[in-house]
Amino acid sequence: MTNTLYLPELREMLAENNAAELREFCQALHPARTAEFMEGLTAPEMWAVLQYAEPQLRVEIFNFLDREKQIKIVETMDRHEIAQLISDLPPDDRVDLLDEVKPEIVAELMPLLPVEERRDIQRLSSFPEQSAGAIMTTEFARLSENLTVRQAVEEIARQAESLETIYYLYVVDEEDHLRGLVSARQLVSAIGKPDTRIGEIMERDLVTVNLLDDQEAVAEKVAHYDLLAIPVVDDEWRLVGIITHDDVIDVMREEAVEDAYHSGAVYPLEKSYLETRLVTLTWKRGLWLTILFFGALVTIFTLNHHEGVIKTIPWLVFFLPLIVSTGGNSGNQSATLIITALSAGDVSLGDWWRVIRRELVMGVMLGGSLGAIGYLIALPLAPGYGDAIVIPITILLVVMCGTLAGSLLPLLFRRMGLDPALMSNPFVAGLIDVLGIIIYMNVAILLLDH
Amino acid sequence: MTNTLYLPELREMLAENNAAELREFCQALHPARTAEFMEGLTAPEMWAVLQYAEPQLRVEIFNFLDREKQIKIVETMDRHEIAQLISDLPPDDRVDLLDEVKPEIVAELMPLLPVEERRDIQRLSSFPEQSAGAIMTTEFARLSENLTVRQAVEEIARQAESLETIYYLYVVDEEDHLRGLVSARQLVSAIGKPDTRIGEIMERDLVTVNLLDDQEAVAEKVAHYDLLAIPVVDDEWRLVGIITHDDVIDVMREEAVEDAYHSGAVYPLEKSYLETRLVTLTWKRGLWLTILFFGALVTIFTLNHHEGVIKTIPWLVFFLPLIVSTGGNSGNQSATLIITALSAGDVSLGDWWRVIRRELVMGVMLGGSLGAIGYLIALPLAPGYGDAIVIPITILLVVMCGTLAGSLLPLLFRRMGLDPALMSNPFVAGLIDVLGIIIYMNVAILLLDH
Prior knowledge:
The structure is a homodimer. By secondary structure, the first copy, chain A, is mainly α.
């Protein structure tokens, strides 16, 4: 997917030291597009091009480069220049980046950073992964509530250059306690009354998150309240950072991918599919696959236990895969519905009885119809229509068992404080495989008492 | 999840017509929280409370109410008052709302709306569902490039009250062709040079979407370029609307839920789980369940065809569920990995050969290890260690078949222009069930030539 359109021109400009054109190249396009056009260059070439961009723009373009290339640049280019770049990066991005750079190089870079930024990096890296503290940025627009609208506009104009977002202006007291919020829109609307105090126009009922809140909860709040950014406070209600909408979008994508992996029983990858080493990938799959395999071993012992039934009524075997897969599929559907409803907040633990009733009714309707089809198929294969009745009864019971287990297990997991998504498709299906065989064999024994 | 904390107080205020306190209630909190506290009220009570909010705030609170309650209010309250509310709603939200209101009531409301808004509603509803045109809003801040910074600030201060977002200011010519963009941040930074023309500070390289682009592609672009809003243009590059970050977040959640339903073989629901009627729910599940059931019928005929093998070597039956579920699980893992990688853009069609090689290697490693465990389990159950060898060889082949089919089918679907997510877990597993049994029976025939 590398864009090679401009590569020859870029290399020529570099060879000729054509400062005017290189500066123009850095400035003319959206930084994300500039980064795309540079993708085919080597790390030293990229760094050479970036020298022609103003520091602010250099940081923006750098931020859109591939992570691998960013790491390469940080690890191989001049330490002093890189320290400057790192101190210009937004605080949240630079912590994420340094996290992936070789520790010995980070150790060389840290002493070259201004002491304030060094402390900021150490503090941000100390928060648990996936917490609000770990994804927040510490640069935001602050105001005092005693400022007038005119003073606030001047103050923001002064801060604007260096800040990631100025769309929410946070009002804090001398000890950084969060007092209120003024949106840029409110401030601009109030320009006609320049002597109004900020304290008079600010909103006081704020939606905030705590430093240790989980990133998924943060994303939920931002989505629910339609926010551009959410303030992060500590236990004393001091404003310590903000999380902006673009980071929230990243969190949502990350969580969606994690959920997809869960539903496929793959342990989440850290890099992309093609970049992950085969050994790592095999290990991340093998772990779950082996657990599921050991679970499925129970089916062997169950069938072995009922060897007599299988030997006396061999036609039952023909329906074995159909019965376990139908039970597994109906269980998957229920699990998917309930996991999705739980995470959207449409269903809560208190609804368990309604959920059971609904799933039972659906189990009867679905199992009944599929059982009827199964009966028609069984008729020519079974010795008589009395014997064939084992199939529809088993299908009905297995589908009901699937809908019940598929819906109750996620609720149970939520009740125990675990992520309901863990009880995802392959695990539900594995469980129904075993239950399905037990039901099948027992229905056969009861009805065909040979 | 209804918040009943304030209900008695609210009802008392309404009974007493306590205007001062009701006005205070509407203003004091974030509109989303005000809406939460009103949740337990009836539609007429809600509407009575909303009368105490300024029109702008009324719209904001209304927008955070449950969709059911919104519809109830629109359908039952005074037509003229509702027409006013609707004309105050953001254009994209009002189209979504009217879409769910009874057509006869919409027909009564439409003539009460100003002609301009009536046209806007008709135009927006004409775009295909899930297109950029269908989710955009037609209210945004416009500027002419000949304005000075001072004039622009005054102009925006004038427009700010009525607009959803003023953080990006779009520069258009007399025929609404999109010429550039100035962010509120750039404008505020330029306040020191009030006579600069907008044309000099605006960005000209813009990221846009077309009216007919799919909402998923829109969300991708906004996420990739870290935008607050994206302009929507028609084929003549005329600016017709914008899509804001909060709508993009909604699209991402919608798509994530749709993907989850796919992976569980449920036809996407329109309402929440508990609100969907049981008949609808059964139908949306039954459709896929029946398709999968008919697919699984093939396993019956395959086993029936090999009746001889099963009767001669009855211990083979014990391993049947284990073999098909292991094949299905490894196929699911591959499908999940490839579908996720395709949608993240980490893998493209051109990578098919690399994908096959990787999946084959993983198939050999995973199938080999699980096969070894299977061999140990088979030893005491099979008549001899020569016979037991059927199990590891089958597991190896079935797992390889699972990884290959699981990875190639999504690629094939993408190649045919279909959504790779359709080839999701239950379908891959169903296919591997059939292939697994065929492999198993043939390995047994070849090795145990009785």
